[in-house]
Amino acid sequence: QKEVEQDPGPLSVPEGAIVSLNCTYSNSAFQYFMWYRQYSRKGPELLMYTYSSGNKEDGRFTAQVDKSSKYISLFIRDSQPSDSATYLCAMSARSGTYKYIFGTGTRLKVLA
Amino acid sequence: ETGVTQTPRHLVMGMTNKKSLKCEQHLGHNAMYWYKQSAKKPLELMFVYNFKEQTENNSVPSRFSPECPNSSHLFLHLHTLQPEDSALYLCASSQGVSSYEQYFGPGTRLTVT
Hints:
Chain A is mostly beta strands. Chain A is 0% helix and 54% strand. In chain A, a hairpin with an 8-residue loop joins strand 9 (85-92) and strand 10. Helix content of chain B is 0%, strand content 57%. In chain B, strand 7 and strand 8 (73-79) form a beta hairpin. The mean pLDDT of chain B is 95. The interface between A and B is medium-sized, with 25 and 25 residues.
């Protein structure tokens, strides 16, 4: 079993839809979670960083962590064609570390 | 130039060639990283440098040889590669090795023939 599982997609949605991107994980020690966005021909860029369980909101983006289910989500409200990218989740058991375990990424297409 | 830059953006090389990838960061960071990104696989950390000193070699084959002459520049020297080494090689930097926020370059798309 992979430590982090992420559906590769592609996930196609119409403009304005609410998008839900998800990762599941097996290591119950993971406490620090990140979401990266990677546009085609670009490197990943950090979108959200969260600690432990709960929600964190930043503009149209909401990161949600459910540690009891070992499940994290990234919600995108009012999705735009410019949100079309690959979204990577990453997680770690420790703070102050560069050693994050990444998911394989979900490719999202927002259709105009 | 701003952020993290990488050259070349694309590279095709034969298995007997020797080539180098270059990364430069303009952010004043002290830590630099090499990652390998293959299709349908998670991002793999290869090497970590902190203040020019290598602090991590994630069991990378010796045909990959990193070099960090200063905190702003990072190289990855390649020789006798295998076709399975074809991938996107990403460079990243962060303020320090304990910083969770890493800034990635656009990557070098490497094809080994």
